């Protein structure tokens, strides 16, 4: 797999590996030894950028990533996140906390769990309405000077927040939901390009839907509580019906490029901008290999434009985090 420059001094593999599903949100956690093996298999497939967060598990995901990648630390880029916890009493509601003292507590914990002296890319997981962006950015600047992080970024943040924070300590990357079924973030791309900020797309396959592997899936096939798909709108029978034209179009277009639906979706995304990457996730080696092929499939600007025009017209169900109706 080749590499691409997200921002000044930050180079990653064309595609990254999202480690979340190993221990959070997609069913029971993977056995620790198996999870370590999967991460090293991803590295063997050419992924050198790995994304995690302290809240995944919580904490367990960072520990697994740290164990798996410690022998290869000089070969990889690791991003992790701070700033949220999940309520145990309201079915997983997000609780933001970006107080400076909490950030410092989080970074020390992440450094220990990741078994590293420096975090390559440190994301604010969600904005905290009680803490101004300038305050968070100032702490990030301090952590960079102290050598505890190399770059910082924000996840799911509005443009004003990004602009204000960037003035204090330059932001290297923004992370947000982006896929063929969730394109709203594209309106932010001109701002990112203006400031030289990279973009990391999470859920690039709409939580797996765009892989085509869930054509007959329904929410009740996923284990409640531990598997978020049990509550995702795109996995209802009604959604499957609504998405039939979209899936047929993607299948046909993928076949024309001798690719799978996953590879087409990822190639479409990577072809948008050179400073953009995605972090698909899977526990299965065959899917990890398949996704890596998305960096090999090349689409011309004209082909991407044609796909965009088709996507604008095709009916799409709501997906987790996005209303398409």
From TrEMBL:
GO function term, MF aspect, one: oxidoreductase activity
Pfam entry (one): Aldo_ket_red
Record's keyword terms, sorted: Oxidoreductase
Top-rank taxon, per record: Bacteria
Cellular-component GO terms for this entry: cytoplasm
Domain NADP-dependent oxidoreductase: 15-311
Name this protein carries in UniProt: Oxidoreductase, aldo/keto reductase family protein
Lineage: Bacteria, Pseudomonadati, Pseudomonadota, Betaproteobacteria, Burkholderiales
């Amino acid at each position: 797999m080749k590499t691409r420059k997200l921002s000044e001094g930050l180079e990653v593999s064309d595609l990254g590996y999202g480690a979340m599903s190993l221990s959070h949100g997609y069913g029971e956690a993977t056995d620790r030894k198996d999870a370590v093996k999967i991460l090293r298999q991803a590295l063997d497939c050419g992924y050198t950028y790995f994304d995690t967060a302290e809240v995944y598990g919580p904490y367990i995901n960072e520990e697994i990533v740290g164990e798996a990648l410690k022998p290869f630390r000089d070969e990889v880029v690791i991003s992790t996140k701070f700033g949220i916890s999940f309520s145990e009493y309201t079915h997983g509601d997000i609780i933001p906390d970006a107080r400076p003292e909490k950030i410092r507590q989080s970074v020390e914990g992440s450094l220990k769990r990741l078994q590293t002296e420096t975090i390559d890319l440190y994301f604010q997981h969600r904005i905290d309405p009680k803490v101004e962006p300038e305050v968070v950015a100032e702490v990030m600047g301090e952590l960079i000077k102290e050598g505890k992080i190399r770059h910082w970024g924000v996840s799911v943040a509005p443009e004003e927040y990004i602009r204000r924070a960037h003035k204090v300590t330059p932001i290297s990357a923004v992370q947000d939901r982006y896929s063929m079924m969730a394109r709203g973030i594209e309106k932010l791309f001109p701002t990112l390009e203006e400031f030289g900020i990279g973009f990391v797309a999470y859920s690039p396959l709409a939580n797996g839907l765009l892989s085509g592997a869930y054509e007959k899936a329904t929410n009740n096939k996923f284990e409640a509580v531990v598997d978020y798909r049990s509550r995702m709108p795109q996995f209802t029978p009604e959604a499957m019906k609504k998405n039939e034209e979209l899936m047929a179009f993607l299948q046909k277009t993928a076949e024309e490029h001798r690719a799978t639906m996953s590879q087409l979706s990822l190639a479409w995304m990577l072809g948008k901008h050179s400073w953009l990457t995605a972090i698909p996730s899977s526990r299965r080696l065959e899917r990890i290999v398949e996704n890596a092929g998305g960096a090999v499939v090349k689409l011309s600007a004209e082909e991407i434009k044609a796909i965009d025009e088709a996507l604008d017209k095709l009916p799409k169900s709501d997906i987790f985090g996005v209303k398409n109706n």
